[in-house]
């Protein structure tokens, strides 16, 4: 491609960017998993937060520089509620939420990341007033799935994977028999579970989250904000 070709295509690309909705993430989960699964001190994961959040901000700004004007920036999930973490990081009774059964300090890590990311989103909005940047919340709906499971059509039970190793543990998760591996089976109806394999959500969970992002209340502002569209 010659420089002339590049110059000719650039306006077309910028126009495409202006008509597109960008979902920037969710980023950060694997960055925190690296020290956590190596059993490093929790403080090592906290030390990553400013770097992860700054990197997300830089990615948003690069997209804006290319012409993007509609971006959705998701936070991270409450990892302390997921069977993989509940199975690996055993705690004393006081280390779990009394209502949720989730691991307190891991959820606090997720909350700290999300708080820092929301501050970054506010900074980006102030810097780019002509750009619409939506903060999308994964944390709240996932907590709601645990605390108010029946409201969303899920079974009221200990956080439990649909696809796992039955009989191995209370969370239906085993590192040696993960979903798709020998010894693992899926539940009869994935739609009544919020956790698919102990690591990822089910299609039903993502459906509830998607509606909350589109119409509220799990996005600030909702992607289909009528005031914005009208």
UniProtKB/TrEMBL annotation:
InterPro entries: GDSL (IPR001087), SGNH_hydro_sf (IPR036514). It comes from the Eukaryota. Transmembrane segments: none annotated. GO terms for molecular function: hydrolase activity, acting on ester bonds. Keywords: Glycoprotein. Belongs to the 'GDSL' lipolytic enzyme family. This is GDSL esterase/lipase. The lineage of its organism: Eukaryota, Viridiplantae, Streptophyta, Embryophyta, Tracheophyta.
